[in-house]
Amino acid sequence: MKETSTNEVRFLELEKKVKRENWRRMWFRFRKSKLSIVGLSIILILLLMAIFAEYIAPYPSHAGLYIAFKNAYKPPSLEHFLGTDMYGRDVFSRVIFGFRYAFMMIGLVLLLVVPTGVVLGLIAGYYRGTFIETLIVRLSDIFISLPPLVLALSIASILEPNIFNAMMAVSLMWWPWYVKLTYSMTVSLRNEPFILAAESQGASTLHILFRELLPIQLGTILTKVTLDAGWVILIGAAISFVGLGAQPPTPDLGTMVSEYSKYLPEYWWMSLGPAAGIVLIILAFNLLGDGIRDVFAGE
Amino acid sequence: MQDDVILYVSGLKKYFNTTEGVVRAVDGISFNVKYGETLALVGESGSGKTTTGHVIMGFYPPDDGKIIYKNKYELSVPMKKRPLELKRDIQIVFQDPGTSLNPKRLVKDIISLPLLIHKIVDKKKIYERVAELLEYVGLSEEFMFKYPHELGGGEKQLVAIARALAPQPSFIILDESTSALDVSSQAKVLNTLVKIQKELRLTYLLITHDLGVVRNISQRVMIMYLGKIYEEAPTEKFFKSPMHPYTQMLLSSIPTLSEEDEKIKPKGIESIGEIPSAVKPPSGCRFHTRCPFAKPICSQQDPPDIVLDSNHIVRCWLYE
Amino acid sequence: MLLKIDNLYVNYRSYWYTLKVLNGVWLKVERGERVGIIGESGSGKTTLLKTILRILPQNGIISKGEIIYEGRNILKLSDGELAKIRRREIGMIFQDPMAALNPVFKIRDQLYDILKYRMMAEGRNPSSKELYEESLKLFNDVRLPDPDRVLESYPFQLSGGMRQRVMIAMALASAGKLLLADEPTTNLDVTIQDQILKLIHRLVIEKNLSTILVSHALGMVYHMTDKVYVLYAGDIMEEAGTKELFNKPKHPYTQLLIASTPRLSSIGVGEGIKGKLPDYRNPPAGCRFSPRCPYVMDKCINTKPGRIQLNNEHVVSCHLYD
User: Fold this and answer.
1) What count of CB pairs under 8 Å joins A to B?
2) Chain C nearest C-alpha distance from B271 (Å)
3) C63 φ, ψ to 5°?
4) Which domains does chain A show, CATH number per domain?
């Protein structure tokens, strides 16, 4: 083959340009759907609120233990957007801190669940027909066969009821679904010619799993992750609602709904705030999920 | 074994268990591939030609028989247990351009993988080499940063060929590599294959059902039917005087494009019947159920090897 | 004149974009004439056949043009009138019999339905005995052995060749005058393909049917037709008698296509055609072949060439012959 004068640097620059171009194209596809932009914006705003809760909340001290009975049971007003609760705490401030817990829950659960499930699913699919597959698939089947909320509740009730344990319980019932997802996709891709070609050229198993098989599945996985984020909140709220999750006075949205629901319907504004917060965050993640699906479906 | 033989196959068998019974995909075939030649393995669906190629690649182990490569490697070993230099030396180009390239990887990633694995070039010169390879198969360097879905069918196959060339192999299996293409892109791929073979002194095992393609790039032809080889001849002779009735039927079935082509087709034979199931293949000569010249002995005994003249072998009772 | 298509434009609309596929197609079929359409996959051949029967998918839109069948514009017929034509006059052989046959019904149920509708369209009310006898006649026509077993089978129980024969029988059942064949042998082996082609050939002559055979296999079209249209990217590039077209192709696309086909009698194939089909979202404004044409001129890029009559059986659409 003849020597070329083309230099490596030029190619590297070209590559950078192409990568930028691809990101731009993905962003373009995402942008086409107005609702996913709305979803993304809501999430970004809520995330900023959660991070800077101390500075944004009008009454940061109201987040935890704080009692001022003279202010109790006040309906929404300019001073308290969402009114005050039975101890005189500002509900709006507490909801903002509630977002912080919500994002922590999502982060923790997805961080535990997604990598575990995805890696196990890839391995099980790749080693189809061996005991490794049987082991992983059967194990996840066992977890899937148990009703998720019951499982989470029973685990949460054995352990000390706090938000961390509640999240561990949620994670335990969640990972098998990612195993299922990646396992089924991996099995169908396993014997595609491009995988055989890479293997027959001597590619390592790690390469096949993470460079060949994973990138194809990434779109589907990311879509599920965003759609699941809403579910994490909902399940977390459910556990808190029955009293097995975060304990008062933690400003967790679910705990708040549970606490304040006792004052319905006279003091409706108390539950309205945290409930609306839950709805908003779930809605936002679902809208975002649709947008992400479009980005990957367009290819 | 002769010195000029790169691949030696003897008594190769591969059976598959299915719900309908045991499929005898390849049922005892023997052949040699010589250095630098193109040997065409021709057959219709169910003939076992693709299985043969995949066994050589090591996608699954044979049930019986010997495959010796370059006089020292035993190819009955599955792919995973083969030494790295063997994985470098034998390459495959698949049939379907749609599935032979990973849709999420850039062309340069696809081609640089074998370069990295086998340390063909310095890491810093990888892109230059990828560009060279692309240029070599007739694609410009802009293709480096494209995804497979941006390419046409023929272009995808050319990328697959560049990938196969990257580790500098000596033996390439062409598994119906042009069958899924339109003639306009098939021509380009065929010409490229011929060119690189000449320049790089490659050996091809061409697996195909298309005799037009065979005519254009191979030096020798083998005809396979239901897991067995029934005729073997140099390409010229094969087209001039096909001997086995199945070969004649195959040739006479081709819709030709000109009067000269029409003259090549054997007269006095017409395609009848369908390929029987490989689960219960006919006894004796497996073609006897469709053969217009079948004699009683054909259904009882396997036909012997009949060597007509240099290199032309036919397995048929007619020539006993 | 049995069928005359003129200036036909068909688009596929999706949520994001419009694919401008057929770009002013013309076509004529005389009674008893066998017409072939050749072109690469993706050039709009199947769309054209589907438009004739008006069985385009939901998003397929016929934006302009006319399809005159026996003096009536198919595109303006009511559903009832169209159904009558489909049931007794035009039959279609589809590319993939596995997709065209319903997997959950026996062959008998599917064939009887077609026969029943045809007979009802003819004003008869057939008994099941008549249907059975008619089926046997059809199966005999397509040389299907063991008709009773086939009638009682589900599609997956038949071999590829038998399925294709069943498909042909069904198409014949409703093809009183015109038979449309869309790549009728693509998925079949050569020896089976040969049998099926000879079968279609014989039936067409016996029953004096007009046919439109669509294929990317040139050899097949060479043997089975009287006249050929070359379709590329939704444009008719050339029209000529079969012998004339294959021996004296005029359009660069046709020339390259024919030169690319491997021969049995000689070694060496043409260069092929560089590039790929245009993006139908934004096809070239002038000649749609211009981006791949070796003889491209300035005017090819912006002006669509007209139809140029070279002799009484040869029309080409190319600026080289202006």
Assistant:
1) 94
2) 6
3) -90, -20
4) 58-285 (1.10.3720.10)
Domains in chain C (CATH in brackets) are 3-78+226-321 (3.40.50.300)
Chain segment C180-195, per-residue pLDDT in tens: 999 988 878 899 899 9
> Is the minimum CB–CB distance between B59 and chain A shorter than 8 Å?
yes
Residue C8 belongs to what H/E stretch? strand C3-13
Q: Could you tell me where the DSSP H helices lie in chain C? A: 45-53, 79-88, 97-100, 107-121, 128-141, 147-151, 160-174, 190-206, 218-224, 242-247, 252-260, 298-302
pLDDT tens for B204-242 read: 999 999 999 999 999 999 999 999 999 999 999 999 999
Whole-structure pTM value: 0.90
Complex ipTM more than 0.85, yes or no: yes
pLDDT of residue B1: 60
AA letter at A127 = Y
* Euclidean distance between CA atoms A141 and A175, whole angstroms: 11
Range B16-42 average pLDDT: 94
Residue A14: list chain B partners with CB under 8 A.
Answer: 144-145
Instruction: Mark yes or no for CB contact C262/B213 under 8 Å.
Output: yes
Q: What is the DSSP string of chain A?
A: -------HHHHHHHHHHHHHHHHHHHHHHHHHSHHHHHHHHHHHHHHHHHHTHHHHSS-GGGGSS---GGGTTPPS-SSSTT-B-TTS-BHHHHHHHHHHHHHHHHHHHHHHHHHHHHHHHHHHHHTTTSHHHHHHHHHHHHHHHS-HHHHHHHHHHHS--SHHHHHHHHHHHHHHHHHHHHHHHHHHHTT-HHHHHHHHTT--HHHIIIIIIHHHHHHHHHHHHHHHHHHHHHHHHHHHHTTSSSPTTS--HHHHHHHHGGGTTTTHHHHHHHHHHHHHHHHHHHHHHHHHHHHHHT-
Cα–Cα distance between B78 and B172 in angstroms, integer? 18
Q: How far is A190 from chain B (nearest CA, A)?
A: 12
For chain B, the average pLDDT equals 93
End-to-end CA distance of chain C: 28
Please answer whether residues C71 and C137 qualify as being in contact, where contact means their C-beta atoms are separated by less than 8 angstroms.
Answer: no
CA distance C217 to chain B (A): 8
The residue of C220, C265, C280, C292 whose CB has the most chain B CBs within 10 angstroms, and thus the best one to mutate to test that interface, is C265
DSSP string spanning C61-92? EEEEEEEEETTEEGGGS-HHHHHHHHHHTEEE
The per-residue pLDDT for A251 is: 86
Determine, for residues B212 and C267 on separate chains, whether the beta-carbon distance falls below 8 Å.
no
Q: Using CA atoms in the order C135, C139, C144, C147, what is the torsion angle rounded to 10 degrees?
A: 20
Read off the DSSP letter of residue C282. S
Q: Say yes or no: domain B5-319 is CATH 3.40.50.720.
A: no
Tokens of residue B77, six digits: 């070993």
Instruction: Specify the residue for token string 């293409």.
Output: B181
Residue C255 confidence (pLDDT): 95
> What tens digit of pLDDT does each residue of B285-319 get?
999 999 999 999 999 999 999 998 878 999 999 99
A1: pLDDT strictly greater than 70: no
Number of other residues whose CB lies within 10 A of the CB of residue A71:
18
Distance of alpha carbon B181 from alpha carbon B173, whole angstroms: 17
Residue B183 near chain C (CB below 8 Å): yes
Report B:91-110 residues touching A (Cβ under 8 A).
91-92, 94-96, 99-106, 108
- Identity of the residue in B45, B151, B255 whose CB atom sits nearest the CB atom of C197: B255
B268 touches chain C (CB under 8 A): no
pLDDT in tens, A219-271: 999 999 998 888 888 888 888 888 787 888 888 888 888 888 888 888 888 88
The predicted pLDDT at position C268 comes to 83
